[in-house]
Design a protein that fits this description.
The complex is a heterodimer of chains A (about 1050) and B (about 425).
Chain A (H helix, E strand, L loop, with lengths): L6 E3 L2 H5 L2 H7 L16 H19 L6 E2 L15 E9 L2 E10 L2 E7 L12 H10 L9 E4 L5 E3 L2 H17 L4 E5 L5 H13 L3 E5 L6 H11 L4 E4 L6 E5 L10 H12 L10 E6 L4 H4 L3 E4 L5 H16 L14 H10 L4 E5 L4 H13 L7 E7 L6 H12 L5 E5 L3 H4 L3 H7 L5 E4 L5 H4 L4 E2 L10 E6 L2 E5 L12 H8 L7 H12 L7 H11 L1 E3 L15 H9 L7 E6 L13 H4 L14 E3 L13 E8 L6 E7 L7 E5 L23 E3 L2 E3 L1 E15 L18 E3 H4 L12 E2 L7 E2 L17 E6 L8 H9 L7 H5 L8 E8 L6 H8 L3 E7 L8 H5 L5 E3 L5 E3 L9 H5 L6 E2 L15 H4 L19 E2 L5 H13 L12 H5 L5 E5 L6 H6 L1 E3 L10 E3 L4 E2 L11 E4 L1 E3 L7
Parallel strand pairs in A: 8-9, 8-16, 11-12, 11-14, 12-13, 16-17, 17-18, 22-26, 23-25, 30-45, 33-44
Antiparallel strand pairs in A: 1-34, 3-4, 4-5, 6-7, 10-15, 19-20, 20-21, 22-29, 23-26, 24-25, 24-29, 27-28, 31-32, 33-40, 34-35, 36-37, 38-39, 41-42, 43-44
Chain B lengths: L53 H15 L17 H4 L3 H9 L1 H6 L3 H9 L13 H16 L22 H34 L5 H8 L4 H6 L1 H24 L17 H7 L4 H4 L14 H8 L11 H12 L5 E2 L12 H7 L4 H5 L16 H10 L11 H10 L20
Chain lengths: ~1050, ~425
């Protein structure tokens, strides 16, 4: 390794090296709990005998009769066993993604990104990938519901009755001129807005109130002050060579993370031809996924965000010869350096801030104006429509509702009782409102308090459209017939506004005809094309004039300066990388996805810096509950999680937990922290001052995947360098392991050259994968995609604690430290703000696979295409293979996770009739007692080969795409045939056969200097290469 | 709310897959067809253009079998007219082309000949084969012409490829011969041993022996003494034990094997009539067989293509066909009993075998065209699969996918490439 002094460690326990950790570190699985210490009794033996005898008798009988039921009238486009793909649109409040839905026999089974979209460009996120399972959520509403009588269940209504009852109430309200409100998250759909307009036309007292869980109201207000219009511009990170983010988690949750991830990857990508990359500064309190990817990360407190930005403004203003403003703290580390870099890169620089404070955002606008970012990295003429929520309007609505001034309210697919800070007040006020309706597809906290439930379809069942960005349109089409008696919410609104034809499909279609259809060719062709593509992009007509910046930076700076400093702890409330804002919390795929940073699953926690947590016992995941008290709010009790990188004096709590009516999966996990949010300067503030943080004596164990499968300190796992070194054309990674041969101990050779194996020959294909550590941001979309594609079982909190999670693909998150391993003091200091490396780890498909040689029943074998095959029906569960796997990527089915009541809550996809519809019919559901692991999506390989064979042609390069690769927004994962010199992976790795005479042998040489293999020295010859991470840091620091 | 597909359907409402192998451009049609009578119309229309090339005829035969045969024969009238001489009696070759491509259009245009036909065949429309190219139709006509001109006696009823014999191993007659031989040897041994005993006895009688020894020599070999001897008991126990063990093992191997399974189906559908006597192509009904994993059991609409018209069967009369009509009218699917049940852990793809490898249906399903009630012909065990993968040559002809592989294979081996050589025995080819 190049900087061989550098030490990586996976968690606090490993760093502290406490005895408990050391004891278990070498074990793949935790010790079995007491409940499994099976002392079999004689009686058990007899029971088993009895069962055995009867089972044999049963098996000898005739197999059960199975039916084969064909269609009555087979639809033309559906062929059993052949997948269909539909372009559609994912919207969840203000979140957007253009998608392609894979369906089998009429059931959606996978979501992929739509590469045709100019907005998301084929990217997805963990939330989007997982939203598929929300379609099959068992807690969905099955039809409209009326009010519940005291202590009784809600009355089931027909849609006609609901329309009649609500219609009567609406006309009563209209008769007396009562006020009606439609409350919603950001509405991206122009047709939905049009439907609401129709409703407003019928009931003119109606007003629409939009709010967002993660509000960007501060940016809207700042832009109104700066440019005279409340809007959010388009940011283009791909054009920025210097990025400064002050607490903006733009790769995780800020504005449009999928879009930004795509753009960011472009600037972070390096190759021998392009030895350039952007430099990314991050100033933040919690360790966010964005901060984890930054080149320079500075720990600041939330109260210092303004000061850092004002300092940055002043430094740049003085360089530009413009007047400076008062205030600012240029002693904050890296501010001056960032200012120098920004100024040098003006025109290609971008500054963003996550704060929802108008004054801070005005300063950010000011800086971007000085740096000429407007017109280059920021496009003000291309406003986006995400996060249009109006905090002031929402606050006004709540107080009106409390004051009894509202007569009717319709909650359009939103849940403010849970996810708005005034939710509790609103919930109480709903009782006094004459008509309350919720259109959510689930009841949830808000729905539980309204009179009428008029459930909308899930987005995969519904027609819709979206306009994420000016002139960028997107169509959503149903990929399945509605499962339940639900009705499009827009249709509901149209019906209530007295439209004769309320069919929402026809409404969308006629809108598109009016808005976008230019008259040629015929409308049907236009519509078919839009539907096929899923998107429609209309060229922007107006000339790109950059408006002048007119923000009052002086006033903003003085507002910032007058912000009181915090006396106690400062609290950051943020969206975690798995459950996000909590709207999809009932999705077990997300609950079991390890948070990219904390690696916690199924748990809520408060993150605290190691410095502030000195008195907490560092035992593996074992912590204590702490109470977090915000002035004037109810105290919240959550377990503490020690998080390196967290600024001392600050704590962070993710939102999205503390659900009470989300469904079996999410209910009861953690606390709702939305009520802790405060309103500062008219907008919601996600950071709070003077927070009391007190230890309780209650113990808790957080389920974390973090310290599982440790590499025991081997240094050959992660390789990294700095851009400056990489820019030298003769750069080579300095770690090349060698081994001595018996003949001459002084003669060292590459480990692959010495082998007792004869080696394989891959005449047809040789599948391989390259993973670029430089562009992998650790988001976890691939993990969810892999779960969905391969029917991977979810096991729940307890089993994760027992280290029995089943994920085939995990993302190892390593912290680094510059200190030597024996320099304990040094390590401790670096641990305060570590560098982070994300490394996706999956079966390496070794050519000399250690697992294959130890299997007593040949259940894991090698294929002629380089795959390490796992045959479930052959496996007898000795687990020798897992024991012998150097990468610890094999997973054992400790239980029967399907058709087992015990796992019904955590794994509905294999235990409920509704959930089972999500399973991929081409992949076996594994049973108890067998081993499983990444198969390189062999079902996709086989299907790709078959397609080529059927068309009687050779396979095209890159015809097969694995699920993880398809989901990777940054393109960090490249899969392909390394026997084919034209494939993307061959070109990326610059791979060539070691012996040109025998090109089909396994031995291949890569000429990409960044390519290396994990644990190369053990000579297992994996088929996965990793590309060295490059940090754009000054060499001296590295 | 209608649901449009991403793939906007073609004009046809047929189960057509236009990208498929040309031979099977369309293996299904929606409406019954009819064609061209008017025998007295004698003027010829470019009939001499019809090719007599063997290539055109064989291409036409494949197309005819896959697309036309469900309703037409060359010499006999079926749902539609017999096609012999059609190129002479139809108004023109161009007329035939336009009629085949879009019969309803020709009828609607008011064409006399077409309307006459239409009325003559109970106003049943012929499916539009819009995906046919002109040359396809010419090839079919070439085949029809060749068949028309063929002498009656030369016509050979095509026999379906016989099924491959089950399992490997030695044939039973061979085994019987071996057993008989062994039995003969045993009898001979017994006779020899008898001679030996009497010779020894005679030898001992001539000697001076003690009383005890004499008793032993003279003790008679009785049935009781033999059965009580420990050697005999051991042999009997061993034999019984081995046979019992073998029977148990055999029994266990047959668990889950349903060879010969022939359940009663909700409709007494006979493959013997449809595939055997009517010679309807398998792919006409089993539309998925060239495309996907499952061959698919035909949906009711496919049955109705013909049974719209044919209301009475040759064996069962009207009762069974009425069930199809009832299913169609009540929109109630027919619940067939599944005969071939592979375990969920095994992935089998019909198109791989039928489309790519060109395996005949009968290879696995047996003489299906002779079965009134379908039964499971093959073992469908893994050993059975593997056996075939070991023996079968890969169908590489005309498939560019295999070009490189064949070249590499021929460099190292003399024998043709078997499925095994291509990795056909690997676990993850079927288990994932």
């Amino acid at each position: 390794m190049e900087e061989s002094k550098k030490v990586y460690w996976k968690g606090i326990e490993q760093l502290a090296n406490n005895p408990e950790f050391v004891k278990h570190a070498h074990e793949e699985f935790a010790q079995p709990g007491p409940e499994e210490d099976l002392g079999h009794s004689r009686r058990d033996f007899l029971k088993m005998m009895g069962f055995g005898v009867s089972a044999v008798a049963l098996a000898a009988c005739e197999a059960p009769v199975r039916k084969a039921i064909p269609y009555v009238n087979k639809p033309v486009e559906i062929d059993p066993s052949i997948a269909n793909y539909y372009a559609s649109t994912y919207t969840n409040g203000g979140d957007y993604c253009s998608i392609v839905v894979k369906t089998r026999e009429g059931r959606p089974i996978k979501i992929d990104g739509n590469a045709l979209s100019a907005v998301t460009k084929g990217g997805t996120s963990a939330q989007v990938e997982a939203s598929l399972l929300s379609l099959y959520d068992n807690s969905r509403l099955t039809g409209p519901r009326g009010a519940a009588a005291e202590g009784k269940k809600r009355e089931k209504l027909s849609w006609e009755d609901l329309d009649k009852q609500v219609g009567a109430k609406l006309s009563e309200i209209a008769g007396k001129g009562g006020q009606i409100r439609i409350v919603s998250n950001t509405i991206l759909s122009p047709s939905t807005r049009a439907a609401i307009e129709k409703f407003k036309a019928k009931y003119p007292t109606t007003q629409v109130v939009q709010y967002d869980q993660s509000s960007a109201y501060g940016i809207l207000k700042a832009n109104e002050a700066s440019f005279g219009k409340a809007f959010i511009p388009s940011y283009d990170f791909s054009k920025a060579s210097v990025i400064v983010s002050v607490a903006a988690d733009f790769l995780g949750s800020w504005i449009s993370p999928i879009e930004f991830t795509k753009q960011y990857a472009i600037t972070r990508d390096v190759s021998e031809e392009k030895r350039e990359m952007s430099r990314h500064y991050q100033f933040e309190s919690i360790l966010s996924i964005t901060g984890a990817n930054a080149d320079y990360r500075t720990q600041i407190k939330p109260s210092e965000e303004g000061a850092a930005l004002v300092a940055l403004y002043n430094l740049i203003a003085s360089k530009a010869g413009k007047p400076t403003v008062s205030g600012g703290d240029d002693k904050i580390k890296n501010v001056a350096k960032a200012a120098d870099d920004l100024w040098a890169a003006r025109g290609k620089a971008l500054v963003v801030a996550g704060s929802n404070d108008k004054s801070i955002q005005i300063i950010v606008n000011g800086i971007n104006d000085l740096l000429s970012s407007y017109g280059t990295t920021i496009d003000v003429n291309l406003p986006v429509n995400y996060r249009q929520g109006d905090d002031a309007a929402m606050a006004a609505f709540v107080s009106e509702a409390e004051g009894g001034k509202i007569d009717g309210v319709i909650f359009y697919n939103c849940n403010p009782v849970y996810d708005h800070p005034e939710g509790e007040k609103l919930g109480a006020a709903l009782k006094g409102i004459a008509l309350t309706v919720s259109t959510g597809y689930k009841e949830e906290e808000t729905g539980a308090l309204v009179q009428y439930l008029a459930p909308d379809h899930h987005f995969l069942e519904a027609w819709n459209d979206a306009e994420p960005k000016l002139n960028h349109y997107s169509l959503g089409q149903p990929a399945i017939t509605p499962i339940f008696k639900t009705r499009a919410a827009q249709e509901t609104l149209l019906l209530w506004s007295g439209e004769a034809n309320a069919d929402y499909f026809e409404f969308v279609q006629s809108n598109w005809k009016t808005w976008f259809y230019k008259g040629t060719p015929d409308f049907q062709s236009f519509w078919d094309k839009a539907l096929y593509d899923g998107i429609l992009e209309v060229p922007t007509v107006s000339a790109a004039v950059v408006p002048t910046f007119a923000g009052d930076v002086n006033a903003a700076a003085s507002t910032i300066a007058s912000t009181p400093k915090s006396a106690g702890f400062e609290l950051v409330i943020y969206e975690s990388g798995n459950v996000g804002n909590g709207s999809q919390a009932n999705n077990p795929l997300l609950q079991e996805l390890p948070d990219p940073i904390t690696k916690a699953v199924w748990d809520h926690y408060v993150t605290v810096s190691p410095k502030d947590a000195k008195d907490i016992n560092f035992a593996e995941s074992n912590t204590k509950y702490f109470t977090v008290t915000v002035e004037g709010k109810k105290p919240v009790k959550v377990p503490v999680l020690v998080q390196p990188g967290q600024t001392p004096g600050t704590i962070g709590i993710p939102v999205g937990y503390g659900r009470t009516k989300a469904g079996k999966v999410a209910d009861g996990i953690g606390q709702n922290v939305y009520p802790l949010l405060a309103t500062v300067n008219g907008s919601l503030s996600y950071t709070l001052n003077n927070v009391k943080f007190e230890k309780t004596n209650e113990d808790y164990q957080i389920a974390q995947t973090q310290t599982h499968n440790t590499y025991m300190g081997r240094e050959t796992v992660v390789q990294e360098t700095t851009l400056e070194k990489f820019q030298d054309k003769h750069w080579d990674r300095s770690f090349h392991p060698t081994v001595s041969t018996w003949a001459d101990p002084k003669h060292k050779v590459a480990p692959g050259e010495v082998s007792i194996w004869k080696g394989h020959e891959y005449k047809d294909h040789h599948w391989g994968m390259a993973i670029d550590l430089n562009t992998c941001i650790g988001c976890g979309a691939c993990v969810v995609a892999c779960n969905v594609e391969n029917n991977v079982s979810l096991v729940g909190r307890e089993e994760v604690i027992n280290r029995r999670e089943m994920h085939w693909l995990r993302i190892d998150r390593y912290y680094s430290s510059d200190a030597k391993i024996d320099d304990w003091k040094g390590i401790e200091e670096a641990a305060e703000n570590p560098e982070v490396v994300f490394q996706p780890m999956l079966c390496q498909h070794c050519n000399n696979a250690p697992c294959e040689t130890v299997c007593p029943v040949a259940a894991t074998t090698h294929s002629t295409e380089g795959l390490n095959q796992m045959t479930y029906n052959r496996c007898i569960g000795t687990r020798y293979c897992a024991n012998n796997c150097p990468y610890k990527v094999r997973r054992f089915n400790w239980f029967k996770y399907h058709d087992n009541k015990q796992f019904e809550t955590v794994n509905p996809a294999m235990n409920t009739d509704l959930g089972k519809m999500v399973l991929n019919p081409d992949v076996t559901v594994r049973s108890r007692g067998v081993m499983e692991k990444c198969s390189f999506c062999v079902q996709r390989i086989q299907s790709g080969k078959l397609t080529a064979k059927k068309e009687r042609r050779p396979m095209q390069e890159d015809e097969v795409v694995t699920a993880c690769q398809a989901s990777c927004s940054t393109g960090a994962i490249v899969f392909g045939d390394i026997n084919n010199p034209e494939s993307k992976i061959s070109k990326l790795l610059k791979i060539r056969p070691a012996d040109p005479e025998r090109p089909h042998r396994i031995d291949k040489i890569t000429d990409n200097p960044r390519a290396y293999q994990v644990l190369e020295e053990i000579g297992v010859k994996p088929n996965i290469w990793y590309l060295t991470k490059v940090r754009n840091k000054d060499a001296a620091k590295a | 709310m209608s649901s449009d597909s991403r793939f906007v359907p073609l004009v046809l409402k047929t189960d057509t897959e236009p990208n498929m192998n040309r031979n099977f451009i369309s293996s299904a049609c929606k409406f019954l067809s009819l064609v061209f009578v008017f025998a007295f119309l004698s003027f010829t229309s470019n009939a001499q253009d019809i090719s007599t090339e063997p290539a055109a005829i064989s291409a036409g035969e494949a197309l005819f079998n896959a697309n036309c045969k469900a309703c037409h024969r060359v010499k006999t009238q079926l749902v539609g007219p017999a096609l012999q001489d059609v190129y002479n009696r139809a108004p023109s070759i161009d007329w035939i082309k336009s009629f085949v491509k879009n019969s309803s259009g020709v009828i609607a245009s008011g064409d006399d000949y077409a309307n006459k036909l239409y009325n003559q065949y109970n106003k049943t429309q012929m499916t539009a084969f819009s995906s046919f190219k002109d040359e396809d139709i010419m090839n079919i006509l070439a085949y029809v012409k060749a068949e028309t001109e063929k002498k009656e006696d030369a016509k050979k009823v095509p026999t379906p490829t016989p099924g491959q014999s089950d399992g490997g191993g030695v044939s039973s007659t061979y085994l019987n011969v071996i057993l008989g031989g062994m039995l003969l040897i045993l009898v001979l041994l017994l006779v020899i041993l008898g001679f030996l005993v009497s010779a020894l006895k005679r030898f001992l009688d001539q000697k001076e022996l003690s009383e005890e020894d004499k008793e032993i020599v003279n003790s008679p070999i009785t049935f009781g003494s033999v059965t009580r001897s420990s050697g005999f008991i051991f042999i009997v126990v061993f034999l019984c034990g081995s046979l019992g063990f073998k029977a148990v093992i055999n029994g266990l191997y047959s668990v889950g094997v349903q060879q010969g399974y022939a359940p009663k189906q909700p409709i007494a559908f006979s493959h013997k009539i449809h595939a055997g006597q009517m010679e309807i192509d398998c792919k006409y009904c089993h539309v998925g067989v060239m495309k996907g994993k499952s061959a698919t059991i035909p949906s009711v609409n496919i049955c109705m293509n013909c049974h719209n018209q044919i209301k009475a069967g040759t064996q069962t009369g009207e009762g069974e066909i009425a069930k199809i009509t009832a299913a169609w009218e009540n929109k109630k699917p027919i619940e067939w009993v599944r005969i071939h049940n592979l375990p969920d852990l095994a992935y089998f793809n019909h198109s791989q075998h039928v489309n790519v490898a060109g395996v005949e249906c009968q290879t696995c399903h047996g003489p299906i065209e002779t079965m009134d009630v379908v039964r499971q012909h093959s073992l469908l065990t893994m050993g059975w699969c593997i056996d075939c993968h070991r023996k079968t040559d890969v169908n590489t002809k005309g498939n560019a996918y295999y070009d490189k592989l064949v070249e590499l294979h021929n460099k190292s081996k003399k024998t043709p490439m078997k499925v095994e050589d291509e990795g056909g025995l690997e676990c993850s080819k079927c288990h994932y």
